[in-house]
Design brief:
about 450 residues, mainly alpha, Uridine Diphospho-n-acetylenolpyruvylglucosamine Reductase, domain 2, Cytochrome p450, 2 domains, 19 helices, about 50% helix, binds protoporphyrin IX containing FE, Cyt_P450, heme
């Protein structure tokens, strides 16, 4: 029988809990879901399900799907002291991600993410509440059609370079690993639109090894320690970022490069201004972010997203621009390379769909030069991409929210601080939504 430990064990900084109380506190957390009548995999005392959620051999998004089969569309897991409700019921998902957005205005953060309220280099992925809203409001216009139109030439140039490499390396019927080609491609695009890179670096990009390393094997010991003993998270983060050589932290190298690129652009703009040279069209995200202002947008729309009395800076700081470019690099690299790989795989294994798609491209884009407006006419291509992402929902673990204010979703009471995660893989293959052929690749659906 687990004794109810004293509340606020963590809030009281001056209070030193006894060993017995600590043990009770861990056991109390570990049994949280059971005590609330919600089933789930028990894992191990103290660490809960943390090890299973760090297993790269059986990735967590597939593990969640396995657990859903066993425990149903709503179940709970724990990772050290963090408690997560996993859902794949569409109505609950709608409740958390859309309707009750005001109660869930942050993502589930990893234990070494840093403080979302203090981190100067905060980015869209980790920001919460009013900080997220501000970043989102200021940077959203960079994703408008008008802005993306300006980046089209760069993307097209990288695509042509990719085709050149594929043709060269497949000469004589040689086979290639397309994923590595797509990784070179996506890094080239992002390098040129978010990192200040001026020309193609495909197959000679020194950044690739660092970016791949970020997506490598998770540092289990560090994440485990941060999950089980939360105060070690910020300490480990500090150590990882201050001694990158010792701990081989690739993120430090990427951030440094991004910082240099942003500072160089600011210096160049100042020099141009001094020399009377007018600011030209924005060339990339750095320019777009430097120009981004939230002049016409209402940032304050409800009290959670407003810090009353705090001056809202309507322009991004240099640190914030570095943060956004950094997260674009990480968020856009693997997701996009894998999406391209999966769609190539699905098209190769479904020649009739490939033929239909080819016919659409030939019909809508008869000339070698493709305009931005022609792209929007490629409806079947859009269906192919969406159906690929339904079957292979990438970045699925990002589909999570932290409860910031106690509430109820359906019949479930959710306390503040609880994370809610969507089991996207189950949702995307649910036969009650997609029909009996849910496992088939059918862009027409
Ligand atoms: C096929 C490619 C991609 C996939 C599958 C993907 C997937 C996702 C997912 C699942 C989320 C979480 C959504 C949520 O919490 O509601 C997300 C958020 C995000 N993605 Fe992507 N992504 C892709 C491409 C990109 C690219 C190319 C960029 C940047 C250039 C990017 C930047 C971001 C950012 C900044 C967020 C956080 C947005 C916010 O909180 O306001 N993603 N992405």
């Amino acid at each position: 029988m687990v004794k109810k430990p004293s509340e606020n064990l963590h809030a009281e900084a001056s209070y030193a809990p006894s060993k017995l109380e600590m043990r009770d506190y861990y056991l109390w957390t570990w049994t949280y879901w059971k005590r609330h009548g919600i089933s789930g995999p028990s894992g191990f005392p103290i660490i809960g399900n943390a090890l299973e959620m760090l297993d790269s051999q059986n990735p967590p998004y597939l593990q969640l799907k396995e657990w859903t089969k066993e425990y149903g569309k709503v179940y709970g897991i724990t990772e050290g002291l963090s408690k997560t409700l996993v859902i794949s019921d569409p109505e609950l998902v709608q409740e958390v991600f859309v309707k009750q957005y005001d109660n869930f205005f942050g993502r589930k953060l990893n234990p070494i993410q840093g403080d979302p309220n203090k981190d100067k280099r905060i980015h869209l992925f980790a920001a919460q509440g009013h900080r997220w809203k501000r970043l989102r409001t200021i940077s959203s216009p960079t994703f408008s059609n008008n802005s993306l139109r300006k980046l089209k030439t760069t993307v097209e140039d990288c695509a042509l370079e990719l085709l050149r490499h594929i043709e060269q390396r497949t000469a004589g019927g040689k086979s290639i690993d397309l994923l590595t080609f797509y990784q070179e491609f996506t890094l080239d695009v992002i390098g040129r639109i978010a990192m200040g890179q001026t020309d193609s670096q495909m197959f000679k990009n020194p950044m690739l090894k660092y970016v791949r390393a970020v997506f490598g094997e998770p540092r289990k010991a560090i994440f485990l320690s941060g999950a089980v003993v939360p105060w070690t998270g910020p300490v480990l983060r500090k150590v990882l970022f201050s001694l990158p050589q010792l701990f081989k932290n690739p993120a430090v190298h990427i951030i440094r490069q991004t910082q240099e690129a942003v500072e160089a652009r600011i210096a160049q703009r100042k020099a141009d201004e001094k020399a009377g040279i007018e600011l030209g069209e924005p060339q990339d995200f750095i320019d777009l972010f430097l120009d981004a202002k939230a002049d016409d947008v209402e940032i304050e729309n409800n009290e959670d997203f407003t810090k009353t009395g705090v001056k809202v800076n309507r322009q991004l700081t240099v640190d914030e621009i570095v943060g956004q470019c950094f997260v674009f690099l990480l968020a856009g690299f693997d997701t996009t390379a894998l999406s391209l790989s999966y769609s190539s795989f699905l098209l190769a294994t479904h020649p009739e769909i490939q033929k239909k798609l080819q016919e659409e491209v030939d019909r809508e884009c008869p000339d070698p030069e493709i305009s931005f407006d022609q792209l929007s006419k490629l409806k079947y291509l859009e269906c192919v991409v969406k159906e690929t992402l339904r079957l292979y929902p990438l970045g699925a673990l990002a589909n999570s929210r932290r409860c910031m204010r106690a509430t109820k979703i359906g019949k479930y009471e959710i306390e503040e601080g609880i994370d809610v995660m969507c089991d996207t893989w189950t949702l995307h293959s649910d036969k009650s939504i997609w029909g009996e052929d849910a496992e088939e690749f059918k862009p027409e659906r």
